[in-house]
Amino acid sequence: DTEVTQTPKHLVMGMTNKKSLKCEQHMGHRAMYWYKQKAKKPPELMFVYSYEKLSINESVPSRFSPECPNSSLLNLHLHALQPEDSALYLCASSLGQGNFLYGYTFGSGTRLTVV
Amino acid sequence: AQTVTQSQPEMSVQEAETVTLSCTYDTSENNYYLFWYKQPPSRQMILVIRQEAYKQQNATENRFSVNFQKAAKSFSLKISDSQLGDTAMYFCAFMNPTGTASKLTFGTGTRLQVTL
């Protein structure tokens, strides 16, 4: 299995809703990432998990809450979002420490619309 | 902080022709990695080619090759024999290895259109 699977592919939520994005990989990668991508812009890093521990939080608002229950699964919990949070949310994984040459493997993203 | 600059927002090339996408970066590090990613309309970011900074030899992957100039901090992508399926957004990316996890920084992207 050489894929990163993200669900759902599309999500529409109200500003008072609570929802979660899910990301899964079975490549034995030990680092996982959340990126946010606005239209016609590059992806921007949000969070990095390394060996199931949060190692980087790029000053993301607390309405975004990441979770890494195990080495294969990464969640992003969403609560009280704003319309400006509408974007493509990309998950990625990598081998981790000492294996940087292979870059990241990305999922195809969740298109989030906040209404 | 590292920055990655792609000065060509859009480019167009005819099928079977060759096109070069430019990328420059700024870093004070000596050990790093450079990548080109492709993002077609399907949205998934696909790794095209990668380069280790300490290797002088330019990387090549089939029709894709790079011109890596470390002193000039330049990392351009050449696509030979362009195909319609090459139409996509292309992002240059820089990775500075850290202690426990890498951090990938993207340029602003170049939208490539391959025409008949």
Entry keywords:
heterodimer; A: 115 residues; mainly beta; seven-stranded mixed sheet; four-stranded antiparallel sheet; 11 strands; B: 116 residues; 0% helix
Give me a quick take on this structure.
Chain A is mainly beta and 115 residues long. Chain A has strands spanning 4-7, 10-13, 18-25, 31-37, 44-50, 53-57, 64-70, 73-79, 87-94, 105-106, 110-114.
Characterise this structure.
The complex is a heterodimer of chains A (115) and B (116). Chain A has 115 residues and is mainly beta. Helix content of chain A is 0%, strand content 56%. Chain A contains no helices and 11 strands. In chain A, a hairpin with a 2-residue loop joins strand 5 (44-50) and strand 6 (53-57). Chain B is mostly beta strands and 116 residues long. Helices cover 0% and strands 53% of the residues of chain B. Chain B is built from no helices and 12 strands. In chain B, the strands form 3 sheets. In chain B, strands 2, 5, 6, 10, 11 and 12 form a 6-stranded mixed sheet that branches. Chain B has a 4-stranded antiparallel sheet with strand order 3-9-8-7, with no helix packed on it. Chain B is globular and about 45 Å long. Chain B starts with a strand and ends with a strand.
Which structural class do you get from the secondary structure elements of chain A?
Answer: mainly beta
Shape of chain A: globular
Low-confidence stretches of chain A: none
Q: Quick check: average pLDDT of chain B?
A: 93
For the CA atoms, what is the radius of gyration of chain A?
A: 13 Å
Low-confidence stretches of chain B: none
Our estimate of the beta-strand percent of chain B is over 45%
* Cα-to-Cα separation, first versus last residue of chain B: 41 Å
Number of helices of chain A: 0
